[in-house]
Write a sequence for this structure.
């Protein structure tokens, strides 16, 4: 792969070793390099193969693994609720957060424009690359290997989604929690900074005049969702400490043994 333009990010050895540790076998290095190649880098380097086909494949594999798990774990839930639970995990924000948890952005090959405008932390790029990574593992080791990776990274989100409210998003869940404890409605405040092409947003949420959550993001929605998540955890810890479970998308928080057991059911 040429490196005449754009940026190739960090060497992929650490990421490759991480993947091998999760699935118990090596991944194809050429496919991995393609999974990390954003179209902006490919364009600047003479039309190299990019990760869009792998993204398409990984999206389908992720959806299958998550759907299979939800169907088995929640035998009494109707189709509509299962669809909402799946959507709470198979979405751009969730994928991007999981990608951040494994520092995926540092490995992506980006064009100069994306590099200078913060592309390594853009939710759309991280989400697409995460799906391409799942596609890479699928091509390297089949559905069982892909299942191991998906469970390792996404099981904490599946567990958390089951505890959220009907809307399966943090703002809706915070509203429901505040209503259940007669705390009043959450109030959000938002600030933005940076030039138009690289804006960032800071949100805070107050409940009963006390600020319980803060969050940042590249969109208003992302910042408010993160603030709501923090406030939801704070209130849950105060009122039901035995049930409070911090939400973490990082790879290290997922138990390896259950993931292996669940993935085995896919073969």
């Amino acid at each position: 792969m040429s490196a005449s333009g754009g940026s190739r990010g960090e060497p992929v050895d650490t990421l490759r070793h991480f993947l091998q540790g999760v699935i118990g076998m090596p991944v194809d290095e050429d496919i991995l390099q393609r999974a990390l190649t954003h179209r902006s880098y490919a364009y600047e380097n003479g039309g190299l193969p990019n990760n869009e086909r792998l993204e398409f494949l990984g999206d389908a594999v992720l959806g299958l693994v998550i759907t299979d798990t939800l169907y088995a774990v929640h035998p009494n839930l109707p189709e509509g609720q299962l669809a909402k639970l799946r959507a709470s995990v198979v979405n751009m924000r969730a994928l991007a957060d999981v990608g951040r948890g494994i520092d995926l952005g540092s490995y992506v090959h980006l064009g100069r424009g994306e590099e200078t405008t913060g592309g390594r932390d853009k939710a759309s790029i991280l989400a697409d690359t995460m799906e391409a990574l799942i596609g890479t593992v699928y091509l390297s080791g089949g559905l069982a290997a892909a299942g191991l990776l998906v469970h390792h990274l996404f099981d904490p989100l599946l567990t958390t989604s089951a505890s959220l409210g009907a809307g399966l998003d943090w703002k809706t869940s915070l509203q429901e929690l505040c209503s259940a404890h007669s705390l009043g409605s959450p109030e959000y405040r938002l600030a933005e900074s940076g030039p138009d092409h690289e804006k960032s947003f800071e949100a805070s949420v107050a409940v009963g005049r006390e600020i319980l959550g803060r969050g940042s993001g590249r969109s208003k929605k992302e910042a408010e969702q993160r603030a709501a998540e923090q406030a939801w955890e704070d209130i849950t810890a105060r009122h039901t400490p035995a049930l409070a479970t911090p939400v973490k998308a990082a790879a290290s928080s997922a138990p390896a043994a259950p993931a292996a057991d669940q993935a085995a059911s896919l073969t």
Remarks:
- DSSP finds eleven helices and three strands in the chain.
